[in-house]
Specification:
heterodimer, A: alpha+beta, seven-stranded mixed sheet, six-stranded mixed sheet, 19 helices, B: mainly alpha, MetI-like fold
Chain lengths: ~525, ~300
């Protein structure tokens, strides 16, 4: 049967009307899905690896554009929400977690993501030599169906979802998509908004939009290129000249200048990171709580922040940074007070004065300011501080060998939950580092940290972690120095660039206008 | 026959030299304090986790076992693989060589272009105002840090005039040429003072030589004497000065590589040292040692072929 000319016209008209109706109903982003704009980000670190198990800050933020985890850290850094997962349920035994997966996720090669990929990824992450310790509570993983994963833990483990949100638990294709691990990490694929275009070690890494990305209309950008430019001045000039769109970590002292430059935007994002001065309790004077409190009182945090961060920072009052889950604003961290410092020293066995050594990082502006400001304050209360400097890696080795008295140290959160840091820093047995290489050991603190780990009730966890924060602050386990923000500068035609306190970039939300 | 014997002897001398260099490099690299595992594990490094990484990297084995393993790879033409991304060190060095060559050759050529006219200007009338002026230039040049020169060049010719890119090396030959001009100029400005001084001194000395006086007595024009006799001979003398300053040149390239974000061998080496990436540090050092030894050997052989007395 042949359709008449009239009826064909009617069908065509109906198709146009329906098409335009569908177009108007769908989100704008979905109808305007062609990514556009090539973004260049300059940074002072060279990308090292696509293997999540061996990734550090030089590689993590870049990997996260290609791989994604089941859960995602929130913008305030304190909680996590489902990402590749739909939901998670904890059974009444507190040992069994049933995770439902989204069914619309594809890897960048078009292969759908299933529970087999998740099991494979979490299994290799757990066995990993680098970050496997985060999954130490996992006993086994099963996959009842293609969209369900069941995780059994050895003990009740409240931080599980936070751990699953860590980059080290990124979801890779089952069995590396049929490749060897080495081959896969040279040409990786993931479910992230971008896929690898090329990687030239020492120079740049370029990614292009993943056409199979599960968030409709995203990413907005056509490509992102991460360039390694070691010199601070060169990065600033590249941004100014338009050779770069975003400058990662310009020095805080350059912020005022950037603000004055037209066409550039600068922002300090809150960081879940803390700077400390560690005190080695193997040194008799530093085993004395009054000496530690005296040193902590004598540290002029605001002066250091003014010198090093051009005022862009806050004095610490807790071992946890304010953007970490279960941070307690009431933590009684000692603040600068020279009279109180002298009074504490008078209570110690070293009331007549003492000599101490500070191990600083050579070439570090921050450490230079911290040590010399502390030295000047301590002189006023009768403590002579000698400053020795060492190259960063040598200093780290000296700290690990515990051949120091005072030294700068720091921590950037990898997960939203305080468990990773508090175990590392306060639990000498499970942390494996003599409490951040200080030899601090308080059984009450260890008990509080372990209680927080095992209890799923947020109120009970807060109680445990508040107690731990209070005890270590009162005992001045370390000098809690300051919390510095993450600073970024970008050209004003870039929009949507946000950084979480654990340093995740959602480049899928960034636009170049 | 004598030449063949000499060639053979020099080849045999190269073997213990390279062996000695490989031992020295290996021991020095392993003697530097600092743990590669700390770079891999970052802030979460613990002694127990570091031990596992040491095993993975093979650096928990006795040093002599590691050395023979390194030597075994070397005999098979491999310089090993990077600790951090499993890249072959040979490939990494090969990828950076063209940038190094552009910087070094460009730096030398521009240094000669700057130095020659200035030295001729100074030497043509010793003690005159222009001579005094040119003699001051080296002192100012020596006093300017390479980083500062680089930044100033970027500000002027990259940012204000837009003649050259602010940084990077580009993808094509022409882009390499354009991108490496400013860094090469920075190197040249640092190198020129030494060249100007040596060229000027050599020219003044040659101007007094008998053959120059003879040429002048014959009535040959002043400029022809300068170009054909004085400059030619002075340049030969200055090539030795340039050779001696090769180490300075390599040092300069490291700084300009950083300022101009040029991925050459200097930055590969510096990054590897700071990350304690032993295979790369060993590889780059061995590579340059071999280059120096081979160039010396070739120079000796050419010298011997031209001057039979050398082989005796």
């Amino acid at each position: 049967m042949k359709a008449s000319k009239k009826s064909r016209r009617a069908v065509a008209l109906a198709a146009v009307v329906i098409g335009s109706l569908v177009g108007s109903i769908l989100p704008a982003s979905a109808s305007n899905s062609a990514p556009k704009g090539d973004l260049v980000l300059v940074r002072n670190q060279d990308f090292a690896t696509f293997n999540p198990d061996l990734a550090q800050n030089d590689s993590i933020f870049i990997q996260q554009q290609i791989y994604e985890p089941l859960y995602m850290i929130s913008q305030d850094g304190k909680t996590v929400s489902p990402w590749l997962a739909k939901s998670a349920t904890e059974a009444s035994d507190n040992l069994t977690w049933t995770i439902k997966l989204r069914t619309d996720i594809k890897f960048s090669d078009g292969t759908p993501m299933t529970s087999a990929d998740v099991k494979f990824s979490l299994d290799i992450a757990t066995k990993g030599d680098g970050w496997g310790f985060l999954n130490s509570a996992i006993d086994n993983i099963t996959t009842p169906d293609a969209s369900t994963v069941v995780i059994k833990t050895k003990t009740p483990w409240a931080p599980l979802l936070s751990d699953l949100a860590c980059f080290s638990n990124s979801i890779l294709p089952n069995n590396y998509g049929g490749k060897s691990a080495a081959d896969f990490f040279k040409a990786p694929i993931g479910t992230g908004p971008f896929k690898l275009d090329h990687w030239t070690p020492g120079t740049e890494i370029k990614m292009v939009a993943n056409p199979n990305y599960w968030q409709p209309g995203k990413p907005y950008l056509n490509s992102v290129t991460w360039k390694y430019v070691a010199d601070d001045n060169t990065r600033a000039l590249m941004l100014q000249s338009g050779q770069a769109d975003i400058n990662e970590f310009p020095p805080a002292t350059s912020v005022a200048q950037i603000k004055k430059t037209s066409g550039l935007t600068v922002q300090a994002f809150p960081a879940a990171a803390s700077e400390y001065i560690a005190m080695n309790e193997s040194t008799p004077a530093l085993a004395d709580v009054h000496v530690r409190r005296a040193l902590s009182y004598a540290f002029d945090r605001r002066s250091v922040i003014k010198v090093v961060l051009a005022g862009l920072g806050t004095p610490s009052n807790s071992i946890l940074a304010p953007n970490v889950g279960f941070y307690d604003p009431k933590s009684p961290g000692v603040q600068y007070d020279l009279k109180a410092a002298a009074a504490e020293l008078a209570k110690s066995k070293f009331a007549k004065g003492l000599k101490l050594e500070y191990l600083a990082t050579s070439g570090s502006v921050e450490d230079n300011a911290m040590s010399s400001i502390l030295q000047a304050s301590l002189k006023k209360i009768g403590v002579t501080l000698t400053i020795n400097t060492q190259e960063p890696k040598v200093k780290r080795a000296t700290q690990k060998a515990m051949n120091y008295q005072l030294t700068s140290t720091g921590w950037t959160m990898d997960i939203s939950d305080p468990d990773e840091l508090l175990t590392f820093a306060l639990d000498p047995l499970n942390g494996g580092t003599h409490s951040f290489y200080t030899n601090y050991n308080n059984p009450a603190v260890v008990a509080a940290v372990r209680a927080g780990q095992a209890n799923s009730d947020p109120a009970a966890r807060q109680k445990s972690y508040s107690l731990a924060q209070k005890l270590v602050a009162n005992e001045a386990m370390m000098i809690f120095a300051y919390n510095a923000p993450y600073i970024y500068a970008w050209r004003s035609n870039i929009t949507g660039f946000q950084v979480t306190p654990t340093l995740s970039y959602h480049m899928e939300d960034v636009k170049k206008g | 026959m004598n030449f063949l014997f000499y060639t053979g002897k020099r080849f045999l001398q190269v073997i213990p030299a390279l062996f000695g260099i490989s031992v020295a490099v290996f021991l020095l690299v392993h003697a530097i304090p600092g743990d590669p595992a700390d770079v891999i594990l970052g802030q979460t490094s613990t002694p127990a986790r570091a031990k596992v990484i040491h095993h993975m990297l093979g650096i928990d084995r006795p040093v002599f076992v590691q050395y023979f393993s390194f030597l075994g790879h070397l005999f098979h033409g491999s310089l090993g693989t990077s600790f951090y991304n499993n890249d072959s060190v040979t490939t990494l060095i090969a990828g950076r060589l063209s940038a190094t060559l552009f910087l070094m050759v460009g730096g030398i050529l521009l240094a000669l272009l700057i130095s020659l006219p200035l030295a001729i200007l100074a030497a043509s009338k010793e003690g005159a105002l222009r001579d005094q002026a040119v003699r001051v230039v080296p002192i100012i040049g020596l006093g300017m840090p390479q980083v500062w020169i680089g930044i100033e060049l970027i500000l002027l010719l990259g940012l204000k005039v837009h003649l050259f890119p602010v940084s990077g090396f580009g993808d094509t030959f022409l882009q390499h040429l354009r991108s490496s001009f400013l860094p090469a100029l920075s190197i040249a400005i640092g190198l020129s003072p030494i060249l100007i001084r040596s060229l000027r001194a050599a020219m003044l000395e040659i101007l007094e030589a008998d053959f120059v006086l003879t040429a002048k007595a014959k009535g040959i024009g002043k400029s022809r004497v300068m170009i054909s006799h004085v400059v030619r001979n002075a340049v030969i003398a200055s090539v030795t000065v340039l050779g001696v300053n090769i180490a300075y040149l390599v040092g300069s390239t490291v700084i300009v590589e950083r300022v101009f974000a040029i991925p050459a061998t200097g930055s590969l080496m510096i990054d590897a040292i700071s990350k304690r990436d032993y295979p790369i540090v060993q590889g780059v050092t061995i590579f340059f040692a071999v280059v120096v030894v081979v160039v010396n050997l070739l120079a000796d052989l050419i010298h011997a072929s031209l001057d039979p007395r050398v082989a005796l």
